[in-house]
Specification:
Spore Coat Polysaccharide Biosynthesis Protein SpsA, Chain A, Rossmann fold, alpha/beta, 3 domains, nine-stranded mixed beta sheet, 36% helix, six-stranded mixed beta sheet
Length: 389
Amino acid sequence: MKLSIVIVNYNVRYFLEQCLLSVEKALYGVSGEVFVVDNHSTDDSMPYLKGKFPWVRYIENDENIGFSRANNQALREARGEYVLLLNPDTFIGERTLRECIDFMDKNPQAGMCGVGMLRIDGSFAPESRRGVPTPFVAFCKMSGLGSLFPKSRLFGRYYMQYLNKLSINPIEIVSGAFMFIRKSALDKVGLLDEAFFMYGEDIDLSYRVLKAGYQNYYIPTQILHYKGESTQKDSLKYVNAFHKAMVIFFKKHFTQYSGIYSAFITLTIVMKGAMTYLMHKTRAWSHKKDEMERLKFLIVSDGQNLDDMKNIAEKHQLRYDVFHSRLGDIPSTDVLYRDYDYIVFDTSRYPYSSILEFFRHDESNRRRPFIATYIPSNKSIMTFCGALN
């Protein structure tokens, strides 16, 4: 078997449904298996998904055992030459898995690879490429030096923004949202460290793979990462979990540094986490479901499923326009970026790869609309806030 895919779910059934739909398309012609590990969801994820995706192997936990332990449950059963750890709040392009497999097949020294992750507005997510957060690298990030000099190989190493995001490049840390791993490398270094409940386990595993003599890589194929829907980043639990994870990482790998320096790193992590929480809280408030009527949608349709999409929009009292297209046609960026908050694509008519390819092309700093998708299987429009149905 070529590939084993592991997805850990916690109360995001509609996001996971879209993720699995994209995975099913991307697996066409690939010998693979898919595991969904459910951490005691309370949104009826399992009965809902099992009927729709009977080919998935499900592992159901009777409590939330954390990201690392849940992934390890499936990894112990995985039979693939490669393993992909994938977040449920993502969707991938139809060519994504093949591109990763082809790259890893041709580069036996590669232990892991990550991809270009797009945010919900189609912009490039800097965490797609990261350096090992040594105390100096972490200091540069937390102190703001990395933001002041993002292209500097000295100060900007955390996000490695000096690398061309359209080219294959060696990197150090692969994001846990899409972590493509050579199984033999994983067997050599061991599974995810279960001391990490959530966050930090990807940094730790990436670092251990590097120390084992492999190289990690970034390849420029795209996925969308809603970022936060699977982990509830609008709660203080995120700040606390991230803080604890980084403390565990420093104690594990950088014990030689003084307690004073470690305390400073801890303090800056807490401060940065609090700022991130406040910024996310403000942005999330403006896109709550009950605020959607303030936003404007553009529905891109060739006619099929148009009535269903319009019915959803009218049910939720959304302001919307329709771009009437022939299959394969999409509006120009001038139309898209005029005054719309969301652009809705019917995923039964437009491939995920085409949606990703379109949104990633605009590199300007102008206001960007959010990506939305229509999912015919549940007759819903997927937005940053979840499903409208």
